[in-house]
Amino acid sequence: IGFATAGFLVGFGTRLSNGCTSGHGICGLARLSKRSFAAVLTFMATGIGSASLCNPSCAIKFLSTTAEELDNFYPTRSSKYVAIALGSLLVGTALAGMKKVKTRDDNAKPTIGNTKEPVALLTGSLFSIGLAISGMIKSYKIYNFLDVKGFSTETWDSTLLYVMGGGLAISAASYQFVRGYSYLKNDAKVQSCPLTQSKTGGAFNLPNKAAEIDAPLILGSALFGIGWGIGGLCPGPAFFLASAGYPKVLYLWWPANILGAFLGKQAKKLFG
Description:
By secondary structure, this protein is mostly helical. It contains eleven helices and no strands. It is globular.
């Protein structure tokens, strides 16, 4: 129940607030977005609250998502086969998409450099490697960061702080080369589109600067934080674990997350 509850809340909250730890916590803060500052403060607060209440020593055992409290937590032979099948399908779809060269300039000669698929494949791989090396795929590291009782028991883990801080620094430096977000004096170094896209039709996909802090942002971030604190997982690490065949994430967290994201998208319409 804990995995399904966490996955649903993370999916619903991410969709409603248009971001998660990566979207708001790294990319948003790097471009000094007021919405992202509000989102991070909100989901950190609710994440700390839920992790402190739903940690392994908590009486609410049905929400526990730690390996010590659960049977069949680690990958089984069948779950590995399912993960391999689904992963192969996704990789095959990605490779097929790479063959479809798209360009917005009809007069331009199509080249692989004008497509984003190879770059997405590379950056996605780097992101996965980074998650594994930093230990962010281990939910207990998230628990030990968010659980405030860790200060008194000397179990508090600062890993997440360094990982997000490092990612934020790199992201902030990268935004100095994006037109409209740069503080550099030399405009010659500022780019109007990604290097892999044509300058005549390419563009950065960035949120609207004028967007205000609103109810969907705060509510979605709060729900995301609660789910994050219960499960110790956000979409990136959860995708990694599902691909590795962890049954609780593959069969419970992700289906619930997809349902939550779908309902979150419908809920956004209620706010106009």
